[in-house]
């Protein structure tokens, strides 16, 4: 990712993005008890499809999905469909590494992703 793209994405992410952490139980092969796992997700949602597609192109990771707004009976006719880009796990780590230095609002949450995966790599290296 180019530096200019990372700076622009950091600003866009500060305004429109979301960082989510979700803990869940995972059962590993050959073990009786489930272990705790953490899922880290980055999302950007907006009605401007070209911007969302640019994010996927610039980062090289993630998915683009469309959320249709006018499905429910309570929806308003002026509501527009929403486009979402999201990535998770190691892809979220890669994007967080690139945009965290330029982020302001979401910097702390992006750093949590970086620390989590950096610590995980160190533990794996030492067989823990």
Description:
The chain has a 4-stranded antiparallel β-sheet with strand order 1-2-4-3. The chain is globular. The model has no long low-confidence stretch (mean pLDDT 87). It is an alpha+beta fold and 128 residues long. Helix content is 43%, strand content 27%. The protein has 4 helices and 4 strands, in the order αββαββαα. The chain has helices spanning 3-16, 49-59, 89-99, 107-125, and strands spanning 17-26, 35-46, 63-67, 82-88.
Portion of residues in beta strands equals 25-35%
Largest sheet properties: 4 strands, antiparallel
Order of SSEs, N→C?
Answer: HEEHEEHH
| Gap from first CA to last CA | 32 Å
Number of strands: 4
User: What is the CA-atom radius of gyration, in angstroms?
Assistant: 17 Å
Strand order of the largest sheet: 1-2-4-3
Provide a short characterization of the protein structure.
This protein has 4 helices and 4 strands, in the order αββαββαα.
Element layout with pairings:
Layout: H1 3-16, E1 17-26, E2 35-46, H2 49-59, E3 63-67, E4 82-88, H3 89-99, H4 107-125
Antiparallel strand pairs: 1-2, 2-4, 3-4
Question: Top keywords for this entry?
Answer:
single chain; 128 residues; alpha+beta; four-stranded antiparallel sheet; 4 helices; 4 strands; globular
């Amino acid at each position: 990712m180019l530096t200019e793209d990372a700076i622009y994405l950091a600003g866009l992410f500060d305004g429109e993005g979301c960082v989510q952490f979700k803990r869940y139980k995972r059962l590993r092969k050959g073990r009786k008890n489930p272990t705790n796992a953490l899922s880290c997700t980055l999302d950007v949602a907006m009605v401007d499809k070209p911007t969302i597609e640019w994010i996927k192109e610039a980062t090289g990771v993630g998915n683009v999905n469309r959320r249709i707004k006018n499905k429910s009976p309570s929806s308003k006719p002026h509501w527009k469909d929403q486009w979402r880009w999201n990535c998770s796990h190691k892809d979220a780590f890669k994007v967080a590494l690139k945009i965290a230095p330029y982020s302001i609002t979401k910097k702390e949450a992006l750093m949590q992703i970086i620390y989590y995966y950096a610590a995980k790599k160190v533990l794996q290296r030492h067989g823990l």
